[in-house]
Amino acid sequence: MLNKVEFDISKKGGQISKYIYGHFAEHLGRCIYDGFWVGRESEIPNINGIRKDVVNALKKIKVPVLRWPGGCFADEYHWMDGIGPKRDRKRCLNTHWGMVTETHDFGTHEFFELCELLECEAYVAGNMGSGTVKEMQDWVDYISCANGTSMSELRKENGREEPWELPFFGIGNENWACGGNMRPEYYADLYRKYQTYVKNYPGSSVRKIACGPNEDNYEWTDTVMKIASKFMWGLSLHYYTMVNNNFHNMGNSDKFGEDDWHSIIKYTYLMDKYINGHSKIMDKYDPEKKVALVVDEWGTWYKAIAGTNRRFLHQQNTIRDAVSASIHFNIFHANCDRVKMANLAQTVNVLQSVILTYGETMIKTPTYHVFDLYKEHQDNTHLPLTENPGDYRGLPQTSSTASINEETGVVYYSVSNADSENNAEMEVVINGINSISETTAHLLTAPEITTHNTMEEPDNVHIVEFSGLNISGGKITFRLPPRSVMTISIK
Ligand code: AHR
Predict the structure, then answer these.
(1) pTM over cut 0.70
(2) Are 121 and 259 part of one and the same domain?
(3) I want to staple 234 with a disulfide (CB 3.0 to 4.6 A). Which of 166, 209, 410, 484 is the partner?
(4) Annotated catalytic residue 76
(5) For ligand 1, atom 7, which residue shows the shortest CA distance?
(6) 448 is catalytic
(7) What are φ and ψ of residue 350, in 5° steps?
């Protein structure tokens, strides 16, 4: 089926914020413990307790920002429990995620060391649900104030002389549910109060992120924007893609048929609908688009793998998740005037993870490879395109995006073929370019819809070079295999 795409390199859109490629580390299942953190005494190679293999893999995809410690965990996290000598750290149960013991071995110092190792920025999610204003104020002080306060002295006693940079701070998480079951009016007023005490200490500049809606909860957005938009840098949005869009009857992550594949592709597109719906409401209160929409939880969500703790939300990751991730990125790019950050849930061992660990083994998932294929879009200028896609059972067969790196002049074009069985014939017309002198193309595809990487076969799904491009003037034609994602760089 023919898919036609056209764009013009002189007709530019906004900047694709690198933070759209953000990640999310929650104290949930094996994300922190076993995933990022194994402890100094572990035989698994580590840097002060943080897994080396995970750090190296994540550095390759240029993680720009990491959100922590939750999720629902954030609103029951008391940061003071996670500082100081390990033997004195408080133990409690992670009541939201499986009632397992939280040792607090991984706390503020460990998180910021992880960010330093990844060379990424920190997005700390503060506890508004069960924490006090003072507790939040003290945490910001402890992290970002250089001198002269009891909190900064305490940080120094605990081994960190210099303050850390705190570019992003979230005030609560899902406060309409696990974060306190609040009504939007109540949350908005409380937000105004808590954010007052999130201070910018000398040299620090914190961007404050308010708890936004789930899915299509437009009333939440309207109320919170009306009451509190003046006091925020960003408003969050959460949307998870599920089979049949049904939380109570999810499909499997690794064993499924074509209908479930189709369903995930279909409901991936709801992200576009929700972003546009919420943006329209935000426009009412913020026509200049100063407030960012921060999609700080997104991804596919299936039944937990059989035999694992149900509350650990551990799932596999197939080529289906890769195609869904690619469509997500294309949607985020197209809405980059409003969407300034997005954080995939969760980086390691939980929902749509990019990395899975099994003891000392680490594997990269198909979704990891999409982050790799798309990393060159970070901070580029978006090139809006017109698409005339073929049909895949009532859905667009393909989904595309393009951007230009203003420094190098290189154009990046990415596309996915969501069709489970058929090739997509592609015709990409690039206007404003005399002739294309050089291209490289990289492809991710798999023999079956359920193909995934395992400990035994870690490279079932991996990126390969693609040599099937036909170029004539400013036109590129090629045949894109089913179940695939591709990036072409064009000079
Ligand atoms: O990602 C799992 C959970 O989903 C998060 O903790 C919560 O914010 C959301 O409901």
Answers:
(1) yes
(2) yes
(3) 209
(4) no
(5) 71
(6) no
(7) -120, -110
